[in-house]
Automatic annotation (TrEMBL):
Swiss-Prot/TrEMBL cofactor(s): FAD
Protein name: FAD-binding oxidoreductase
Keyword Oxidoreductase: yes
KW Lipid biosynthesis (keyword) present: no
Region forming the signal peptide: none
InterPro entries: FAD-bd_PCMH, FAD-bd_PCMH-like_sf, FAD-bd_PCMH_sub1, FAD-bd_PCMH_sub2, FAD-linked_Oxidoreductase, Oxid_FAD_bind_N, Oxy_OxRdtase_FAD_BS
Family: Belongs to the oxygen-dependent FAD-linked oxidoreductase family.
């Protein structure tokens, strides 16, 4: 492996690709590598602002010839790799979104974000299987599984991918679907960035134009009651309802509704695809637990789906950690409150429990490498790496993981813990496919799997 100081001349690469080729110090380099997570910015040796699959293929071939590893970034929401010394392929220019209302599909470029798909699908009464925030990238989210407010009804986003185009480590652009490159089709849907750079993805849209939902914010004093009520109420919901509950330490942000600013609050999130009247009946037991600070649940167009989780849309420096839980008995809730409840003095900004089950637990029509299907709940915690409590965040994330360890079954690929989340026979199959398509570990920087393979 050559070092950053001996980076080969990029002139030939710049001549071969249509997009910009930038090295540290070039104007525009910092903007190109900066994404949503401001704490994850590291320094690749060169960044290629790809405009097409051909640009991606040129960049991969150049990286291989010059003995560099390849990383990819669309939005920077989910960067866990060290980009140091890599060739970073920035896909943000490849942001086309085409909706076919008759086929009920969307075909998107590698840099598309969910907001663009939601807005293109909505006029046709259709919706994609996006997650909690529409600022997230479609491809990174979907290749990691993709768990959102419609997942209990329809499954993981990866379960509804129809075809992909991907550049593999040999620099070839490959069409991937259940017939062509079927092993890659299985592996990329759940195996995330380990197989190559996805340049295009086609997936199903769902006939969803509206929902009844949003969030109820409850005071810190009710945290214990709310979490205990939620853990018994949530599993009684039908598949067309989704819910999560989050312990939030909200900033004193004037953009937030007044009763929430600077408060510790418990946020019960809810989405139901039935009528508003049916949704009200389902939600009534949670509404009865305590007097809310704010009740923002109602009838909404699907395009307003961000209102359910209210994730921060602006980039910020953060660290996160996930786990899947096999069950959530009263002792697990007590353990969680012990380290992250209102009296615990935790620096974590968000600690969220999400109900899984329903279609999430069912095998998809075409099997894939998605993990976490059999878990009952997902836990995600986020700490902001700024301000006086930033230093306590890594320890608090570890402490929370330790507290719920007795009930932990693994982790989702999109919300990883330490190490990689794949296990069991699927892990062996995934590793075999990764090693066969990428024997030199060209894409090893995307997630941990490839680093552990015997090929390197
Ligand atoms: C605010 C927020 C809300 C979230 N909500 C949810 C949620 O509700 N459900 C859920 O499942 N996840 C959620 N996530 C996690 C998110 O799905 C992952 O972080 C995902 O990796 C983000 O993809 P990206 O392209 O936006 O990020 P990037 O940082 O650009 O990419 C992250 C990784 O995705 C892979 N990747 C990206 N592009 C490609 C490509 N073209 N080819 C191959 N691999 C690629 C690579 O491994 C890359 O390192 C959330 C994250 C944030 C920050």
């Amino acid at each position: 492996m050559s070092t950053a100081s001996s980076l080969p001349d990029t002139t030939a690469l710049a001549a071969a690709v249509a997009g910009p080729v930038l090295v540290p110090g070039d104007p525009g380099f910092a903007e190109e590598v900066t994404g949503y997570n401001l704490a994850a910015v590291t320094a690749p040796a060169v960044v290629v602002g790809a405009t097409s699959a051909d640009d991606v293929a040129e960049a991969v071939r150049w990286a291989v010839v010059n003995d560099r590893k390849v990383a990819v970034q669309a939005t920077g929401h989910g960067l866990y790799a060290d980009l140091g010394d890599t060739v970073l392929i920035s896909t943000r220019r490849m942001d086309t979104v085409n909706v076919d209302p008759d086929a009920r599909t969307a075909r998107v470029g590698a840099g598309a974000r969910w907001r663009a798909v939601i807005d293109a699908a909505a006029p046709h009464g259709l919706a994609p299987l996006n997650g909690s925030s529409s600022t997230v990238g479609v491809v990174g989210y979907t290749t990691g599984g993709g768990l959102g407010p419609l997942s209990r009804r329809f499954g993981f986003a990866a379960d509804h991918v129809r075809r992909l185009e991907i550049v593999t480590a040999d620099g070839q652009v490959r069409e991937v679907d259940p017939e062509r490159n079927a092993d890659l089709f299985w592996a990329v849907r759940g195996g995330k960035g380990n197989l190559g750079i996805v340049t295009e993805m086609e997936f199903d849209l769902m006939p969803v134009a509206r929902f009844y939902g949003g969030g109820i914010f409850l005071p810190a004093a009710a945290a214990r009651e709310v979490l205990h009520a939620w853990r018994t109420w949530a599993p009684t919901l039908p598949d067309d309802a989704s819910t999560s509950v989050a312990l939030l330490q909200l900033p004193p942000d004037p953009a937030l509704p007044e009763p929430l600013r600077g408060r510790y609050a418990v946020h019960v999130r809810f989405t139901h695809l039935g009528t508003a009247a049916e949704g009200e009946v389902l939600l009534a037991p949670m509404r009865a637990v305590a007097e809310p600070l704010l009740d923002a649940v109602g009838e909404m167009p699907y395009a307003a789906i961000d209102a359910v989780h209210m994730d921060p849309p602006q980039p910020l420096p953060f660290a996160d950690r996930g786990a899947t839980l096999a069950s959530l008995p009263a002792e697990a809730v007590d353990a969680l409150l012990g380290v992250s409840g209102p009296e615990a003095g935790s620096p974590l900004a968000i600690v969220e429990l999400r109900l899984l089950g329903g279609a999430i637990a069912r095998a998809p029509q075409v099997p894939n490498a998605v993990v976490g299907r059999d878990a009952a709940f997902s836990l995600v915690a986020i700490g902001v790496l700024a301000g006086p409590s930033a230093g306590g965040v890594p320890g608090a994330l570890k402490g929370l993981a330790a507290a719920v360890e007795p009930w932990t079954s693994g982790a989702l690929v999109n919300f990883p813990a330490d190490g990689d989340p794949w296990n069991g026979p699927d892990r062996e199959r995934l590793e075999e496919i990764v090693v066969r398509h990428d024997p030199a570990g060209t894409f090893a920087t995307n997630l941990a799997l490839a680093r552990r393979s015997p090929a390197r």
